[in-house]
Amino acid sequence: MICLSKNEQGAELLANYLAKTLDAPRTAELARHIQECSDCRGLASVWERLDEFAVPEVSPGFDARLYARIAREEARLSLRTTWKSWRRWLWPPVAPLAAAAAVAALVLFLQVPGTPDAAKQANPTQSSKAEIEQVAQAVDDLDLLTPIDK
Amino acid sequence: MEAVVALERDAQLMLRVREGDDTSFALLLERHRGPVVHFLYRMVQNQAVSEELAQEVFLRVYRSRKTYEPTAKFTTWLFRIATHVALNSIRDRKKEKGHESLDEDALDGVERQVADRQPTVEQEMVHEVRLREVRQAIEALPAKQRAAVLMHKYEGLDYTQIAGVLSCSESAIKSLLFRAYESLRDRLSHMA
Asked: In this structure, is the dihedral angle defined by the CA atoms of residues B151, B156, B160 and B165, taken in order, positive or negative?
């Protein structure tokens, strides 16, 4: 038998032997070959060395952490779905309504009497009277500040 | 035959998960938690990271439940997700650190296992050195070769399944494994 470790087909056969997936006659044939061939023995020993790569136990809280993550994700998805649903039903009517309300408010602001200038123009006498009263009050306040002996 | 029955059972369980049966998801988790975590541990060589990645894998399985179709073997599908997650993590770690490094926590875990058998100090040191060399040899493999070797050697996946996981032909996988085992032999030959 030629050396199995020199080509892919041989290496595959050797790997199957090491993984113990060959039938009994083939297994015996390869066992004999490995005894005689140092290259194949080298490959076989690598397979055995890999067994030394032990792994630690999975942490006890692994499942609990996973289920907590799933619950968080489910809650987030549920919230997102609810929001999408509400937005789908509410948003289309609300948008034009909001736009119409804004336009109406602007029109009212510009045209309806009631702004300060408009009020002033609507009753000039009342406005002037108020200004005179304010000036008189200011003069009285100044008098209070004047020293008595002056 | 036993493997075929097991795979069919996994697919059936996943189909039940699709219908909303969370108990079936718990059964799938019970059956595959260990293999997935161990595969990821050997890929990234860090216990905390491997468990975090395994959680991501099972979370993706759960997310995909409503669209699951048993077109491939369940383990092929599962390990495809795990490999994808692991390769992304390795790529990100390489970007962050510039190179990969061994994790001290993980070594501690293995040392504890050794300590349980109460070997002599010398035996323990020899074992640790040999283990470190094996880990470094595996770590030195290109990521795809590493994934293929780990699935072949430790998880018992056949060539067809590994080809399905890595989206390659079976002959490409055989070639990949051949090169990987050759590299390992070159690196570990002094240990024989």
From this structure: negative
Contact B66, B16 (CB under 8 A): no
- Name the residue in chain A with its Cα closest to that of B139: A53
Kindly report the CATH class assigned to B141-192: mainly alpha
- What is this model's ipTM? 0.77
In the three-class reduction of DSSP (H, G, I as helix; E, B as strand; rest coil), residue B100 is classed as: coil
Interface residue B1 vs chain A (CB under 8 A): no
Which 54-73 residues of chain A touch chain B by CB within 8 A? 54-56, 58-59, 62-63, 65-66, 69-70, 73
Residue of B nearest to A43 (CA): B185
Q: Is B167 helix (H, G, I), strand (E, B) or coil?
A: coil
A25-57 burial, b at 16+ Cβ within 10 Å, e below that, comes to eeeeebeebbeebebbebbbbbbebbeebebbe
Q: Do B185 and A42 touch (CB under 8 A)?
A: yes
pTM exceeds cut of 0.80: no
Q: Which of B33, B62, B178 sits opposite A58 (nearest CB)?
A: B33
Residue ranges of chain A with pLDDT lower than 70? 1-2, 4-5, 90-93, 112-131, 135, 138-150
Q: What is the CATH number of domain B1-101?
A: 1.10.1740.10
Closest CA to B157 of B58, B36, B11: B36
- Cα(B34)–Cα(B27) distance, rounded to whole angstroms? 12
Q: Where are the domains of chain A?
A: 4-50, 57-117
A92: which 2 tokens?
Answer: 């289309």
Question: Which part of chain B is CATH 1.10.10.10?
Answer: 141-192
